[in-house]
Model the fold of this input.
Amino acid sequence: MERTELFTLEHISLVIDGRHILDDVDEHLHDGVATAIAGPSGSGKSTLLRLLNRLAEPTSGRVLFRGTDVRDLDVLELRRRAVLVPQRATALTEEAFAEVRVAAPALDDATVATLLRRVALDPEELRGRQPSSLSGGELQRLCLARALAVGPEVLLLDEPTSALDPRAGDAVDAVIRSLVADGLAVVLVSHDIVRAGNIADDVRVLHEGRVTARGPAARLDLAHELMSPPHDGHVHDEDDPRAHGDTHAAHLHGTERQEQEESP
Done:
């Protein structure tokens, strides 16, 4: 069964001060799955994520969203359809229910409560509370509820668990998987290769701005691909998802954790 394309990146390059941040990235990201972008520090992961909703612009090439060049879409509409949740969870209001309503002020309490339950938060416990009183994991999930409030077609998550302890990170991972199971597409950047493999259906590995491996998470040796890029420039395809029909591959277990956080 052929997958529906969500984003298409056609020969994307980004050059800043003579340095190739991204170099001829030619990829297809699919709907209804979680796709992880992995790679060592400075490989261009977060930059690639920001291209998807025009928080960054390529030097050459183009990005398509559901077959339409993103430059032909209203940028605010694009950013409501493809919502980016930044690495550091930051509250914008002084009350939890108001936080969910930041971009959707007309939401009633019942809808806000439903969104909070979607991210495994108890609305009765949060009603009237200040976001600053929440734990890091709770605040990250509150920010996910805020993103869901606008009805996005895809969430773009930049290092969603990097600032969390393992238990809080596991709770966020469970929420992400539940959202994907409900049909929401997710594209996430993670420096933690174990988490990337456990959350994602598909993985793209970047080295020095180039994709060096792609495929279902369960069929890539992610630790090897992360640490040992091919010297011949050949991309390691493991059942390239552009031609493969699996929608939810089994997840990778037992790889070594890599703590290579990407520089801004």
